């Protein structure tokens, strides 16, 4: 097959439609516009051990997955992308590829709870990797925590669920000075609104379950990097040791979903801005966390390092945990569910849902109060969404 056309100079919208899915018009090609779903687990070889088509076994290489890998790499301005069976698989494979017993990790204290569980209950517990959590909204706190054993800085921006940011370029500088790796979970921003590798990260991860797929019908993850040696290491661990690949049907779903990523992200953001503004003016709401609001403490950083503020808003109501819970249950358009990044609006009460397993004292210390609510805003009509929230808040 000829090399695919170079897409790196195209606009994001063009890359989202075409990268990885050029029709095969070679003699014998089918001309499919849409990548076929290659379900075969193994591939017939014309030459034993060295097939001319290059495919041997689906864990080691699959044409549908390669199409998606190329799409994700191109959208992320990255040389390499690998797609995984979940965001957690992408995170775990990355960490297990770069860390050794005795290493030290500096992590943002606001990272996704699942990543924290992996760090605390697995890396620290079974691999003797020490993880130190710092308030990375202050880059100096990250620099101060770096020790001779530090191998990795693990950041997320914006964070889940409190929408805190870290200065990726400043922390990239710290990583370079100390010769350690910087990884950034870019799930909330997506490559449309933020490209951590261009800001100085060595590796970036996504849960494709969220915006990249965007339609609530696939669990997946991705890792992107420009570092050839790092890509080889992660790919080796993925293909030969851990094997958590994204299955072909899910690759097709993410290829399809990602075509509309720019359209959806613009609408998610427009709706989230209106919802955040509405909430910030409501008497029953005591705090709104959304980087697009000028009152967000890191609004300036968000405007500098992101091309948009994203679609997730979290807020606190003037009430008890039971009232916050009753409020989310009272809504019609916002569905009570964990996860985010899909076309439909969801709502959750972290204290009784996504953070319910965290001991109360630890949860409160991390800022997840009893009255905190997280609302990933979908692409429905903003008027309808605000009317739903208005109704719910009136009945508080
Ligand atoms: C920021 C972030 N990273 C990673 C993950 C894990 O992704 P997955 O659920 O696809 O394993 C999530 C899931 O909510 C997330 O919000």
Which outline best applies? globular
Kindly provide the name of the CATH class of the largest domain.
Answer: Alpha Beta
What would you say the CATH architecture of the largest domain is?
3-Layer(aba) Sandwich
Bound molecules: pyridoxal-5'-phosphate
The low-confidence runs, each spanning 5 or more residues with pLDDT under 50, are none
Instruction: Note the gap between the termini.
Output: 62 Å
Query: From N to C, what is the helix and strand string?
Result: HHEHEHEHEHEHHEEHHHEHEHEEHEH
Residues in β-strands, percent: 5-15%
Radius of gyration, CA atoms, in whole angstroms: 21 Å
CATH topology of the largest domain: Aspartate Aminotransferase, domain 2
| Quaternary organization | single chain
* Overall structural domain count: 2
CATH superfamily of the largest domain: Type I PLP-dependent aspartate aminotransferase-like (Major domain)
* Strand numbers in spatial order across the main sheet: 1-7-6-5-4-2-3
Protein name: Trans-sulfuration enzyme family protein
Family: Belongs to the trans-sulfuration enzymes family.
Pfam families: Cys_Met_Meta_PP
Region (Disordered): 1-32
